[in-house]
Amino acid sequence: MTYTVSREVRTLVTLHEGTDTTARDEAATELAETLESLTETEDIHIADGLETAVYEHPAAPFDPYTVAVSFRAVVDVDADSAADANARGAAIIENVLERSSLESISYPSPATAEGS
After folding, report:
1. Which has the closest alpha carbon to 107: 98, 115, 99?
2. DSSP per residue over 42-106, as a string?
3. pLDDT tens digits, residue range 70-99?
4. H or E stretch including 26?
5. Which helix (H) or strand (E) holds 14?
6. What is the separation of C-alpha 87 from the centre of its chain, rounded to a whole number of angstroms?
7. CA distance readout (Å), 115 to 3, 59, 80, 84
8. What is the top-level taxon of the source organism (predicted)?
């Protein structure tokens, strides 16, 4: 059976921008480009878009912004049970993101599987 496994992901993006708005927009663009550049991400997609918030403002001129980006990573997995799909899907998502250049990746909640 095919299951859709999703997992909430949070990461930090550090960049130089002029305002909070441009920093958040650029962080979302940079994250999307990073995920698209990974060959393994053809099976992983982002559900419900990206949420961005300034995590740390520049302390001085020319210091970077650190932007927190949250998204739901989704992958389809063939498995015999929801539990097996959950474990396999979570592992796929984690393995792909570990090989990326993303900073401070965390998973605020466990993966969830839905059968189709």
Report:
1. 98
2. GSEEEEEEEEEEEEE--SSTTPPEEEEEEEEEEEEEE-SSHHHHHHHHHHHHHHHHHTSS-EEEE
3. 999 999 999 999 999 999 999 999 998 888
4. helix 20-37
5. strand 2-15
6. 18
7. 4, 48, 10, 12
8. Archaea
The domains of the chain, with CATH numbers, are 2-115 (3.30.70)
Using an 8 Å Cβ cutoff, are 69 and 52 in contact? yes
Distance in angstroms (rounded) separating the CA atoms of residues 50 and 27 = 10
Give the containing element (helix H, strand E) for 115. strand 112-115
Q: Which residue has the higher pLDDT, 67 or 47?
A: 67
pTM recorded for the entire structure? 0.87
Residue 29's pLDDT is 93
The b/e string for 37-50 (b: 16+ C-beta within 10 A; e otherwise) is: eeeebeebebeeeb
Q: Worst-scoring range by mean pLDDT, 35-49, 54-68, 81-95?
A: 35-49
